Model the fold of this input.
Amino acid sequence: MGNITAAITAVGSYVPDFVLSNKVLETMVDTNDEWITSRTGIKERRILKIPGEGTSYLAIKAAEQLISKHNLNPLEIDLVIVATATPDMPVASTAVYVATKIGATNAFAYDLQAACSSFLFGMSTASAYITSGRYKKVLLIGADKMSSIIDYEDRTTCIIFGDGAGAVLFEPNQEGMGLQDEYLRSDGNGRSHLKIDAGGSILPPSIDTVTNKQHYVFQDGKTVFKFAVSNMADVCEKILVRNNLTNEDVDWLVPHQANMRIIDAAASRMKLEEHKVLKNIQKYGNTTSATLPLLLSEFEAQFKKGDNLIFAAFGGGFTWGSVYLKWAYN
Done:
């Protein structure tokens, strides 16, 4: 009997039907397809348009696909974590509602919020629960309805974000597969550069905060870009050195889909060949907590047992990090 590691054994995903293309955005704000594509790599993003539905809808759909595809009994799930920056509502946990709706009534559940690093940090959390030996099946869902916090008159943010969800199941592994190492960081000095001013305990909702559009995402693009490029590349390099890995040992880079130039910078720092770098930002934009599991779902068929995957993310706060994982199945 070897040591227990936490391996991903199943994936699922969901994106809404409505496509918001660059051409449509041209009719909404002063921008154009060439400008958006050259600076972000994004061509279109998905938007949840169903009235009365929020992040939980996306999360439930992704979880249901995973459950159906892998013939999983939801009663066997021990824990449901929803990584999200856009919970359905304050106080009442989105994860608790999701767990009930998917039939995981034996599980406990909670939300995890670290902006765009939420899913990455959630991988660490899920792994810790599994390796403790107390839990056998942890469902980690990354889901965000970013359209609910975006001002579609602000061309600096509305071109970037989209809605979506992805889910993974973590289970014990005794073959050495699964999560191998992590390097997670945060810096509260970044708080002012990427945030929503109102709606929290500092500045509760009021007529003034709504009028002043303080419930939408604010981003100091240049500062965030600079920090993201250097820090995402830095943590990827550190995780390789710490595990005696070369670029030849890396089968796949699974980077947060924030900006094509950030992704390319991290890949360049690692000296990775283009075909090893997973990208779908052109189709979905930045879905925040959902970008990493959406990549896993889309490229799952290409992964082989034992493949070395390097995950990387950067988010508001600031939060960032890298995870080294060995894929557990063909």
